[in-house]
Fold this protein.
Amino acid sequence: MDPNLLKKLNAERLARRAAILVTDLSDGRDRLVREGDAVSGELGVAIEKAFRSGRSGTTEAEGRTFFLNAHLPPPKLVAIGAVHISQALAPMARIAGFDIEIIDPRTAFATAERFPDVPLFAEWPEEVLKRRPFDAYTGVAALTHDPKIDDLPLKAALDTGCFYVGALGSRKTHAKRVERLLGMGVTQEELSRIHSPIGLDIGAASPAEIAVAVLAQIIAAFRSRGIAAEKTEKAA
């Protein structure tokens, strides 16, 4: 590989940005495609699918054979709130392939005993985000019911373009949340990205069942990244 191309690829990986190294197998030439770069035709369709799946492999396009070497950041889930749902969600998320972190300033809840082997930050979210900002490969689930804890990371998730943003609470609770976030400068379009009530509607009742519903919704959001935008563009 061209050393300059390798340097660019490593820079993307360090910044937690997705990229695909495209190799034309007929002549061995490589090029780097970043997520969001415009690539037309059959090759563009194959590259979009590779960005969503994270799978590397060969593809036929325009009468040529290409190898797509996909480099996606490991998806991360940040749960705001060291609550019972988070206790069930953490091991499930890890099994599904997500890194998970818990943020909750309430030290009575955010304990290593309740969350063994899970990165745990017993601090206010704004302090954690100064050191560990969200990115497009982060999903955020706000689970405390406390606006003082949930609202700022929700706004940060929307500002950053996190692939998933969900918030626990009834429709009445969410309506009040919307008013607060509008006052913080969040737009109506951005607010429409919040999944609330959180999780797929499977009739979940217990914390573990709610965790299953939330994780299923997170997986669906991660694997469908960009599809809604594509449909909108085609309809326009």
Summary: Residues 76-223 form a domain with the Rossmann fold fold (CATH 3.40.50.720). The longest strand covers residues 64-71.
